[in-house]
Amino acid sequence: MLGTNEVFIGGKWVPASSESYLDVRSPSTEEVVGRVPDAGAADVDAAVSAARLAFDEGPWPRLPPAERARTMELFLGELTARADELGRTITLENGTPVAVVRPAQVDNGLDVVRYYAESAAALELESPRAGRYSPLIVRHEPVGTVAAIVPWNVPFFLGMMKVAPALAAGCTVVLKSAPETPLHANVVAEAALAAGLPPGVLNVLAAGPASSELLVTHPGIDKVAFTGSTAVGKRIAGLAGAQLKRVTLELGGKSAAIVLDDIDLATAMARLTMVSLFLSGQFCVAQSRVLVSRERYDEAVELFAASVSALPVGDPADRGTFLGPLISKKQRDRVLGYIEIGRGEGATVVTGGGTPAGLDRGWYVEPTVFRDVDAGMRIAQEEIFGPVVAFIPYDDEADAVAIANGTDFGLHGTVWTGDVERGLEIGRRIRTGSFGVNGLSLDPAAPFGGMKQSGLGRELGPEGLHAYLDAKTMTVPAGTSLPGSP
Q: According to the model, what pLDDT value does residue 3 have?
């Protein structure tokens, strides 16, 4: 069994003050596979104090960006050396199949660290401007101490989306992992220690809601970066707003895939299967609504259902498995509850709809496809976060755009077409933070985040780095010549 009775604070492993522990259960076997301290108030305070000291008095914020970049490269090297260990640990924690755990969970996180190490090396902290009244310098400085709060579904990748730009900017961090997936975060802590990050620059805790709220409201924290549900995001926004703390919130989604009549349906449905049901649908950009014209609706549903029915569901340790279990019994029951809601609303289950035969142990749900879905149904409006896809017919292009925009969410979306320019034109009309033509990807160089109830701010890209920097204006008397002035 993996785990420890210590927490990583101030650059070393120290005994936890809390006597409470978090049991980590394998989603595929339901057995306890790890145990870590459930950080209490004293642990939270110690971690924030270490981060505060490292920011206020330590070298990290004061290093030239290129020197921070060199340490980040060492951190990347240590993480890369532990990539297989990270993958095995995440499979154990959240049930990601071993066949996809490296690309889906680990390699993309490593690429984020690589991107921000490169960004730090190129970061210019000061730039002169010719002001309207006098010359000035705009200086970018780190915002301070950061609480990085990460969910269980893609924990390493989403953690690095916060930790890497914060480190590049010169911030110090308290990384708070989800109670379900704390084991991989200890591997991250070991990598930070081996890479020589100064004490207190990165601190790692696992905790439930009570201590997480203490972290968010701690007066020593300057910024909160959170990925998770919209409900929790609203709570964090309220708590942070009361203290005028900066926040980046990446929240829920109900993404729509618009299928145009000019696409080859067989190819589109096969590819859509992947981007709708990857990680058993437990990812925020899952294309959980598929919009097809009434003329091609029946054909599309049939092709998609056939593709879904062929997906291997089972033990995540089996290299032939594509769909593993859901994270917990609570989540499985929630998803099964939504399937019953869909039936009750009048939608028709084409395939799936229950638990897989022969998988009596573990929190599995069959990949499920609904047809005869009205855009106003709950299964078409609410984030299910499981392997459930709703097919919705549309009348024309304007109707498809209206349906796609007709939810409280605005995180991602796709269009499937033989005409890329037409696809881009539709993308300009969809109210989402990101959009893909004939596929989706999260590129480290591209800003990612949501509109409407899907969040505030952006991660990744230059925008993700500047979310951890404050702009300071410094003016000089008129007539002063500044080096590099235009």
A: 80
